[in-house]
Amino acid sequence: MDGGAGPIFPPIRRMSTASTDTYGLADYIRSLEAILDRRPSDRVIIREVSQATKRLCATDRWLEERFRVGSPDAYNRHLLHRDPRNRFIVLSLVWMPGQMTPVHDHSCWGVMGIVSGSLEEVGYERLDDGSRPGYAELAEGRGSDVGRGSVAYLLPPHEEIHRIGNTSAGQSISLHVYGRDLDEVNVFDPVSGVVSPMRIKYYSPECGHQPFVI
Ligand SMILES: [Fe+2]
Questions:
Q1: What is the DSSP string of 109-129?
Q2: Of the N and C termini of the chain, which has fewer Cβ atoms inside 10 Å?
Q3: What spacing in Å lies between the alpha carbon of 50 and ligand 1's midpoint?
Q4: Does residue 193 fall inside a structural domain?
């Protein structure tokens, strides 16, 4: 059903431990480009990007300090790479204890890996048929802890509504890849059913921590 050839990654030098693997962010971006060059289905993309994400996140040494800066105000987003062909973006997100997203979607595929610490992800199932504008009836699924070595993914149309938060006692850093040049998501109020658009902002030390919208 998935079709397509196998993943095109450089061979892993040691399978028993990733500590000597020199696979870094530039390698990871090349892996993503190679996957998307084949124009596979979203399901294949998720599977192969997840493999690459696990490999990258086996260590954290590839992430520069400037992309590890958090904020007491809200979880911080750092744009690491934007595909010149607008097929994907790569972000690091820095979460202080207690920081979390609202319930939201992305309208694209996505993969999240953990660079350090851990996060909780809760998925939501949409129960209504989507015919009523600005409204959604959701059922909350079970939360799962995502830690080093595991990934979470988004796969429209049925697996893309979720919330993520740092329920641990320490700072956590995650790596996110999205299948479009994300500038807006839908935010869901699971109690009232109200759905509202929200502009996505990215923060970067290179921009003096001023938010900018893509
Ligand atoms: Fe998300």
A1: -EEEEEEESEEEEEEEEE-S-
A2: N
A3: 15
A4: yes
